[in-house]
Design a protein that fits this description.
single chain, alpha+beta, Ribosomal Protein L22, Chain A, elongated
């Protein structure tokens, strides 16, 4: 048996299809009746699939919301202080507190050789540029957490990022990675 005669039935079927296509009259424009028939056929197929198909699976409910800030041009020292400042707060409360920092009404508590500020905290600063980036991230986190009931900021992590190369070696640029995670607060029942 040679390659040419390997599957003669298949060749015969193909040639028959070609002849049918060539002999069929070509239609340039579909008439409205033909279009409506095609639509009805599609509807029938869809209803058959719905009947046969498996029951709809519900998506598992989200329990956490995450937002990442990569290589933000802010000081890591300030980022760590702001992360500690917003941790264990509701997202809306954290945003309002940071807006007060922008207006110099509230200071971000910081450790180190920093002078005292007005209010209950010992020492702190008003890191305006870093706070603006954090507000953007928190608004994004709020949008990610729209399915959660009563979300709290559970983790706020600031890490050093790689410094960009500068033409002049003495210039030290700042970069930080920030990761904020919000979880749904579960109320404990009293016994």
């Amino acid at each position: 048996m040679t390659e040419k005669d390997y599957n003669p039935e298949q060749k015969q079927r193909k040639s028959m299809k070609k002849q049918e296509i060539a002999s069929a009259p070509k239609k340039i424009v579909d008439t409205p009746q033909i279009k409506s028939e095609k639509v009805k056929e599609k509807d029938k197929k869809v209803t058959e699939k719905e009947k046969i198909g498996t029951p709809k699976e519900e998506k598992p409910k989200k329990t956490i919301a995450i937002v990442n800030g990569r290589s933000l041009p802010i000081s890591t020292k300030y980022s760590v202080a702001i992360c500690n400042f917003i941790k264990n707060k509701r997202i809306e409360d954290a945003i309002s507190d940071l807006e007060q920092v922008l207006n110099y009404k509230k200071a971000v508590p910081m450790k180190g050789e920093i002078p005292h500020r007005k209010g209950k905290i010992m020492s702190g600063r008003y890191p305006k540029k870093a706070v603006e980036h954090f507000i953007k991230l928190l608004k994004s986190l709020l949008a990610n957490a729209n399915e959660l009931n009563n979300p709290l900021i559970n983790e706020a992590i600031a890490n050093l990022a790689s410094r960009p190369y500068s033409k002049f070696g003495t210039v030290r640029r700042k970069r930080s990675h920030i990761k904020i995670i919000a979880k749904e607060k579960k109320w404990k029942k009293k016994k």
